[in-house]
Each structure stands twice: as structure tokens, then as C-alpha cells.
Amino acid sequence: CIRDRFDFVQNYLNMEHVIIPESVITIGNDVFRGKIRDEHPSKEQDKNIVLKSVIITQSVKIIGDRAFKDCINLEYLKFENCKYIEIGYAAFLNCSMLKIIDGTIPIEQIRDYTFQDCIYLESVNISEQLEYIGRYAFKNCVNLKYINIENDKKIFNIETAAFEFCLNLKYPIDKDSIKKNELNPENYILD
């Protein structure tokens, strides 16, 4: 388990390419985060994060909240033979250079802000397990064209503004197929 920033700093700081070892089940909150707060909430420190690629191996079951947030040089993310994974709130928020997510993301929920501001991201493959897409999950992913869901499952909730400013989004999820959820008018569903 990579539990905290101490583990990260000791083992991964200044590495461009990281393969998460098979022994790791959980990547903790804020572990690879590009900016951290010190004891004074008004001060943020930039860490010298040069991380460009990450391979998540099949042993990983949980990626914590903000685990990779602000890794502004992260370009490539691979889910290698993963069967199921839980990805925390804002896990990849502001990974602005992230362009390629290789492999299918085996996930039931894409939580709030998960991929917000990943402006170079073009496509995402998600397993049939998907049931929910949170608020602002893909907001400002201006180059996002495709979200491919294995077997094109059409029954799941999409929170308000999940795809805000995703101006290039096309089939199978496009703005015309997103409708209000009659059971919960604050949410949306695919038609």
C-alpha cells in the first residue's frame, strides 16, 4: 500500500515513469498529488513532479481521493488487466497533459471532478459496470471525443454538468442522448 506522501517521496519523487508494484492494493489520498499544503492552509507548495506515465497493475483496487491531482505532466495512464477499481474524488483533476488512458477502466462510479481539466484527453474506455458519472467528472475536457462503454449499457445516472465544456463529445455519449432523470430531476440519464 502506498499510504501517504512520505512513502511517495521516499520511493517515487522525481520519477517520470511509475509502474505500481503488484504488492500495492491501495494508492492513498493525495499520494502523487502535484501540490501539497503545509501546516498553514494559505500556503501551497509545488512539488517537483515530473511524472509522465503511470501503469496501474491488476492488484490495485483503490485509488484514493486526489491521488494524482495536479500531476500536470502526466500524459499516459494504463489500467493493466484490472478487474475492478474504485477511483476517489478528484483523483486525476487538473492532469492537464493527460492524453491517453490505455485499457478499460473497470469502474462502477466516476466520482465528482475525477477527470476535470484533463484538456488533452481524447477518449475513455469504461467497463460495463459503470452506473454513475459524478458532477463535473469530465468538465473542461475540451478535446474529449469518445466515451466508450463496453456493451453500450445505457442505464446509469449522470450528474449535472458532468460533461460541461466537452465541446467535441460524440457517440456513444453525446449531448443529445443525455436526458433528465425523471426519478431525480437533478441528475441525467442516457436516452
Explain what this protein looks like in three dimensions.
The protein is mainly β. Helix content is 4%, strand content 25%. The protein contains 1 helix and 16 strands. It has one helix spanning 5-11, and strands spanning 17-19, 26-27, 35-37, 44-46, 53-56, 62-63, 76-79, 86-87, 100-102, 109-110, 123-126, 132-133, 146-149, 157-159, 178-180, 187-190. The strands form 5 sheets. The protein has a 5-stranded mixed sheet, with no helix packed on it. The chain has a 4-stranded parallel sheet with strand order 1-5-7-9, with no helix packed on it. Mean pLDDT is 80; it is low at 180-185 and 187-191.
Concise overview:
The protein is mainly β and 191 residues long.
Core attributes:
191 residues; mainly beta; five-stranded mixed beta sheet; four-stranded parallel beta sheet; 1 helix; 16 strands; globular
Secondary-structure topology with pairs:
Layout: H1 5-11, E1 17-19, E2 26-27, E3 35-37, E4 44-46, E5 53-56, E6 62-63, E7 76-79, E8 86-87, E9 100-102, E10 109-110, E11 123-126, E12 132-133, E13 146-149, E14 157-159, E15 178-180, E16 187-190
Parallel strand pairs: 1-5, 2-6, 5-7, 6-8, 7-9, 10-12, 11-13, 12-14
Antiparallel strand pairs: 3-4, 14-16, 15-16
